[in-house]
Specification:
Layout (H helix, E strand, L loop, with lengths): L1 H18 L1 H4 L9 E4 L2 E4 H13 L9 H9 L12 E3 L3 H7 L7 E3 H6 L1 H10 L5 H21 L4 E6 L2 E6 L10 H22 L4 H9 L1 H18 L4 H25 L7 H23 L2 H20 L18 H34 L4 H37 L7 H21 L5 H26 L13 H19 L7
Antiparallel strand pairs: 1-2, 1-5, 3-4, 5-6
Helix pairs in contact: 3-4, 7-8, 11-12, 11-14, 12-13, 13-14, 13-15, 14-15, 15-16, 15-18, 15-19, 16-17, 16-18, 17-18, 18-19
Length: 506
């Protein structure tokens, strides 16, 4: 019997070794190794996940973990059997034609892509106009450089002890010692020693980011919000709806707390964080307004906007990268960062509630019969959101001016971000004034409120993704122009459609 058990255990262990041969060179135990990249220290798993997602659009490749994939790429030039060749999706039509990629199968391996690096570079240099084709070529070229840097072992640095001090060295410096698969596996001891060296010198605070990355809190928050929205539509009572909404807020609060503890600053310094925080603030406002006004519609609208923001941060990877990076000098004043930007983004959350409310009511006016009393009631609900949004926006602009005087030596400079913030404030103040003086009737007020949010999107996304100029350059990014123009087109179309043949009842 014992011999039988020994044989079974031996067979199982053999199968286990055979099944994991692809990970023996790069086991998941390496995921907690501290590496220096992009100006800050983070776990290898986090950097690997961000990099693989940047290269392929997904954090995993061929069922391997991000750490395994990234590690195999780093050792790709060595004499090991565990080779890996990533593939990238070529989205732009003109780039597909240039590279000879079939539109039915737009995936191209990086080995084939690097062979055409010269073709891509020359094609980009011939284009004088900064159009979408040239941008797409530059993006592909940037990915090629990152891929080559990883294969050279220069994309991550590990800690070493030099004269009792931590010195960071690229992994490529150790490649001369690695001749075979066995040498690479033995190199794991060096990597583990680098972890011990760093922890002994600095501590293990960096591991908090590994925990955050593996919890997938944004996905749990999205599930809770969807369940809350489903309960709000199906059930008349709000107990289940509020319970799931609170769970969603808890998960989003955890995200904000984790990012604050990891970065040691307010979690509102990039587009990913501002989108998350605006949805978070909108849901908080919705719960408060819904409780005070005893109106379930507030809650439904807040959940709807929160779902939109969570979908964006979860799936719009190119437009909203989630990576936590070091701050530019102007943002390193945590007091002004925590007051000015937080106030502005909270105002966007309140204004977003008014925007969704207005669009919901426009649709109801177009396809259902709504009396003048109902129009006035819904207009008052929107007005309640606008008041708080405008006050917060005005306060945020003033705080920004004070910060600008402190940082740049002037209160106002007509920077694109400043100018568009003022435009948004003027538009909403005019709408509020018109509503308060009865100069704007309820029906027109609802349409104007729906359209006014386009100015918020221009100040928020347009300056960053389209204009990309001015002193607020730390917020600039790529990939959002199509999204923004699509948003404008849909909103204008909705206003136009609902303005024609809207039903009403006395």
């Amino acid at each position: 019997m014992k011999k039988t058990l020994v044989i079974i255990c031996f067979l199982l262990s053999s199968l286990s070794v055979f099944a994991t041969t692809g990970s023996s060179v790069c086991p998941n135990t390496l995921e907690s190794i501290p590496i220096l990249q992009g100006g800050r220290v983070k776990p290898l798993h986090v950097h690997a996940k961000e990099t693989i997602k940047y290269l392929t659009g997904k954090s995993k490749f061929e069922k391997r973990s991000p750490t395994q994939t990234y590690c195999l790429l780093s050792f790709g030039t060595l004499d090991i059997k565990d080779k890996i060749d990533l593939k990238v999706r070529i989205e732009h039509v003109e780039v597909r034609k240039l590279l000879g990629v079939d539109s039915n199968n737009p995936l191209l391996s990086y080995s084939a892509l690097t062979a055409k690096e010269g073709l891509i570079k020359s094609a980009a240099m011939r284009l004088k106009e900064e159009n979408s084709y040239r941008k797409a070529l530059n993006v592909i070229f940037g990915k090629i450089q990152t891929y080559k840097e990883i294969q050279r072992g220069g994309n991550w640095f590990i800690a070493t002890a030099v004269d009792k001090a931590v010195k960071w060295k690229p992994v490529s410096e150790f490649f001369t010692q690695l001749k075979s698969r066995e040498d690479v596996i033995a190199f794991h001891l060096t990597l583990n020693n680098s972890k011990n060296i760093f922890i002994a010198d600095t501590g293990d605070h960096y591991l908090l980011e590994l925990t955050y990355s593996k919890l997938h809190l944004a996905h749990w928050a999205l599930l809770a919000v969807l369940l809350s929205l489903f309960a709000a539509v199906v059930f008349k009572k709000n107990h289940l709806t509020i319970s799931f909404a609170i769970l969603a807020l808890v998960a989003q609060t955890a995200i904000l707390v984790f990012r604050t503890m990891i970065s040691e600053r307010a979690p509102i310094t990039n587009m990913y964080e501002t989108v998350l925080f605006s949805g978070y603030g909108a849901l908080v406002f919705a719960l408060i307004f819904g409780h005070l006004r005893k109106e379930k519609l507030f809650l439904i609208v807040g959940l709807g906007y929160n779902v939109c923001t969570l979908f964006m941060i979860s799936f719009a990877n190119d437009m909203l990268p989630s990576a936590i990076g070091p701050l530019v000098p102007v943002l390193r004043d945590n007091f002004w960062l925590s007051t000015h930007v937080t106030t502005i983004i909270l105002s966007y959350g309140a204004l977003a509630l008014s925007w969704i409310l207005a669009n919901v009511i426009l649709i109801k006016m177009r396809f259902f019969s709504i009396g003048s009393k109902d129009q006035k009631y819904y207009a008052d609900l929107i007005y309640a959101c606008l008041k708080y949004g405008v006050v917060l926006l005005a306060a945020g602009i003033i705080l920004g001016g004070v910060w600008a005087d402190y940082s740049w030596g002037r209160f106002w400079g007509w920077d694109p971000k400043e100018t568009w913030s003022l435009i948004v404030l003027c538009i909403y103040m005019a709408i509020l004034h018109g509503k308060y003086t009865n100069w704007i009737p309820p029906k027109r007020f609802i349409s104007l409120t729906a359209g006014a949010f386009m100015s918020v999107m221009m100040a928020w996304f347009g300056v960053n993704y389209i204009l990309a100029s001015g002193l607020h350059s730390y917020g600039f990014s790529q990939g959002g122009a199509i999204f923004l123009f699509s948003f404008f087109a849909v909103q204008i179309l909705l206003i136009a459609v609902t303005a024609v043949g809207a039903k009403s009842a006395s």
